[in-house]
Amino acid sequence: MKAKILVAVFIFTVFFSFAQKTTEKPKFNQQLATELGADKYGMKAYTIVMLTTGATKIDDKNKMGELMKGHLANIGKLADEGKIIVAGPFLEQNKQNFRGMFIFNTKSKEEAEQWVKTDPAVQAGVFSYEIFPWYGSAALPMYLEHHKEISKENP
Q: Quick check: is 136 in a domain?
């Protein structure tokens, strides 16, 4: 009986301490918030660029392959420069002809447009684009550092 009570107390203690740890709010880090440009909600303005199907159709697979290599290299360059923080294609066709998206680390639509125009596939007219202001977590740029740790290959 005494052993059962001790086991019950132990289980209760473990459960209670686990429950406390999972509900604790992380400590606010003013330095990190400032470095990331966070407002009081931990958020900031970004610009989203939705890549759409462009007017140019290229049937030559080699030429299209080179454009896509240039497209991916440009994304990598912009990411290394801290300008682009999210990029990726859509996995399904959609009514809007969205092909992919970028989230740029700027609130300036003009600056985002300058950056998207450095893309060879945009320059060739394979992709067009639409630009939207967006408000999201200021910590979003931090995921890129961890993405490099989990990707075995770079497309």
A: yes
Among 83, 96, 100, which residue's Cα sits nearest to residue 155? 100
Q: Are residues 15 and 83 in the same domain?
A: no
Q: How do residues 79-123 score in pLDDT, each as one tens digit?
A: 999 999 999 999 988 888 899 999 999 999 999 999 999 999 999
Q: Is the same domain home to 107 and 45?
A: yes
**How far apart, in whole angstroms, are the C-alpha atoms of residue 104 and residue 111?**
9
3-state secondary structure (DSSP) of residue 149:
helix
155 in any annotated domain: no
In angstroms, the CA 102 to CA 118 distance is 13
pTM, 2 dp: 0.77
- Span 29-81, pLDDT tens digits: 899 899 999 999 999 999 999 999 999 999 999 999 999 999 999 999 999 99
CA distance 91 to 74: 21
**Does residue 18 share a domain with residue 56?**
no
Going through the chain in order, the beta strands assigned E by DSSP cover 43-53, 84-89, 98-104, 127-137
Tokens of residue 41, six digits: 């909600």
6 and 62 fall within a common domain: no
